[in-house]
Protein 1
Amino acid sequence: RTVVAGSAGSVSSGGYAMMGKQDQVSQEGAFRQYANGNTRLILGTGTSRIQTLVLRALSQDQVDTLNALIGHTIIYCDTYGRRIFGAFLDLTVLSLPLSGGLIDVALTIQSVSYDEAV
């Protein structure tokens, strides 16, 4: 978008400039400051999604990869092909006896805001 500003107009140090008419246009929303110092503009309510998964028969290398992803933004594609940007903060590891070292892992992904703009 391009915003064109006029070259004339001023506001005195004592208050408002004299205008014949004043219009104000607004939209519902809020600015939110987060602990990391970022500020985000929130224009509407979103629906947070939570997806609980059980990943079965993983190798130790795959479990190590999941451990390294704890707390990082990931992309999960559900069975309908929708992408969910989310993160998980913990996972439950279950060793399978007599399975040749295969492991089941349970985790819960919480959707997060993410911008793919380049």
Protein 2
Amino acid sequence: MNLVHQKVAIYNNKIKESAELIFESYSDSSENVGLTLVLAELGRYQFQDSDFYKALFGLRALLEPKNIVICINGCRLDFVCSSMGQQMSQGKVGYIIEIGKRATNRARTFDRCDDESKLTTVNKQMDYIRQWSESLKG
């Protein structure tokens, strides 16, 4: 197992705090990676999946009912990781997207996002990604 620790900012009920994100890679499991968010007062939240982007979505689904948002690019409304990016980078690299335009602005999924207005829920992000994808078909 391979472990990497990263300090991250979070919003806990709109109050900015610090936390630790732990990246785990497994070689002997169908769920190849895990993400654990360690919060000083609130404990640990963990999710495993086939890549870090998918694991992030699962982790966010656990955190959203508690009004906790991680301040990283992967939680932005306008961030997407392509299926090729998920395979090539284990979901650690994606794109900042804009309706009607092809994705060209590469960004790291777990890099800090300081613009609170860009952070959103999983459902709103998925809706935006669908709208963006549809806008490219026209």
Protein 3
Amino acid sequence: MYVKNNKMGHKVDIAIRASLILLVVAYLIIGFPSYEPLPKITSKADAFFLNTIGVHTIHEGRFLVVSFPGVNRIYELSSECCGLILFAMFVIAVFLVPKYSYKHRCIALLFLPLIFFGNIFRIALGIFIGYHFSADSSVFFHDTFGQMFIFIWVIACFLIWLKITKNFPSEEKVVMKL
């Protein structure tokens, strides 16, 4: 919808994009500190995934109770662990840049479930590592490789979206005239 010569269309475009960004920021402010229902949804999805791969897990609200060999461990899924910041960064990045069409922006929103499932995999992988090695290794994975994994996952989703919509910046060959 970005049209350089149409001032009214440009103002409407800015108003729509700003409104959507403000909605995301308002949710971050108003939803603080619980950000419901995202932690519960993530907990439920992780419990389902972990039970599917053979790790007995029960979800209770934002908590996961995992039956480790000989002991039960409780994991709390905070709003950060649920990917809230990642979702917000992705949506803001998509709606901040002015030259994308609304069709392309809607395609970007289809990547939110992919980011969600990537985060489910990250959490489950951390618990799986803890299940097979130790709780300390689970914490280590969460604090290091898990964080890197999910940020790389979101960046990859963003780049794939740019490629699919043909919005990926391309280098133009510059011919220097002497």
Protein 4
Amino acid sequence: MVQILKLDLDGKNGLDIFLQRMWIMKYLGLKTEYVKVYHTTNGYHLVLGLDNEIEPVKAILIQCILGDDYRRSACLLLRYERGCKDWNVLFKTKYKINQLGQKIKVSEEKYDPELSEKILNLLRLGE
């Protein structure tokens, strides 16, 4: 059972898609205790703390419906089905290896407390 949803919202419209779909949480009976929003190179990472527990497969489905990267959702399902204990991951920093074999940072999360508070308030209005 899980109490946290993690979404990887890619692209310039990723956050807008989540905001358009967040009403779904109300109809699923999910209440949010906290929200953490992180800016990334390609969009946003959202962490939603829930006041109740849900089944892992249901969490993966809800994350996907709310706008999570569909490729990530497919990988999460495989990780969960294979018994991985830490299946719902968002990487804080991403690296690639260049042609010289050097590790180059390509993305890093940056926490946004103001946006986190705004989204939490919007979610609470919908409850």
